[in-house]
Amino acid sequence: MEALLSLAFDNLSSYDGPKVRKGLRQVEGLLAQICLSNPKPQTTTTATTTTTMAANGSSDDGGGGAEEATASGSRKDLAQLSRDPAFREFFKLQEGFEWNVAMRLIGTLDRLMAKGSDGQNDLLILSALDLIQGVLLLHPPSKSLFSREQNMNLLLDLLEPYNCPAIQSATLLTLVVALIDTPQNTRAFEALDGLLTVTSLFKSRSTAREVKLKLVEFLYFYLMPETPSIPRAGRRDSVPPLLQRSPSKLAGAFGRGGAGAGTQRRRADSEVQCVLSTDEKQELLSRHLSSVEDLVKDLRNCAPFGGAVC
């Protein structure tokens, strides 16, 4: 897997469009092989075979790997994923600086944005955003990268009016993934006038209708009450230490801890202090947008995300 990541990173660091596209497809092929089941139940997918299949699935023009993986398998559920050797190896590699995919994709995104806007470059930006979403979901600790000002600013820059509607919509989804269960990222978003950026885009007459719909969804999401960032699961001897840093839902797939597991999920004081309620976020948002009360009322009455709003 390190060999494939090294090859993909070399391509991602290039300023040549076709090489960047190939690197993106290599990463996509690897993630697809990790997340999809082999159609033959009796065959066990190992980290080595996953890496080989992903590498072979990336043709010279950067295409084919992900489509072939999708056609050859079905999605794994969370319990299957947690038992998969390839996923475990991938998760461990993401804990280190050298092999962190999200970090490399953010760097690629930065270089693509510096090249300006054209059709082919926009497609590469969209691909990079999609992969960032996937990597953050597979390795939630990587979300901490977006607590850094320069990384959060990349996403805010992609929401500027000169970007095409497809990029703006994909950026909003990436922003949601980066903020879920990560209040410190939300505070970074607010500190960089993210609310002003989002509401200005919403109020602009030039903003496409599909983007405005995504913006409304984002505002509903933003107003949801927060929980502290990525709680630790109770320690279990059967689970590698690095995997015990995963969020409760993912870590739970590796097996529940004993009666003391709950007491081990303690919130740090600084973490608790950065958590805002719906009312507090309503006050912040109302500085930039009128009728926020209507959004909160809808959120409480309809519970669009399936959770209660206090």
UniProtKB/TrEMBL annotation:
Keywords: Cell cycle, Cell division. It comes from the Eukaryota. Residues 39-77 are annotated as: Disordered. Residues 43-59 have a biased composition (Low complexity). Transmembrane segments: none annotated. One of its GO terms (biological process) is cell division. PANTHER family: CELL DIVISION CONTROL PROTEIN 14. This is Cell division control protein-like protein. It comes from Hapsidospora chrysogenum (strain ATCC 11550 / CBS 779.69 / DSM 880 / IAM 14645 / JCM 23072 / IMI 49137).
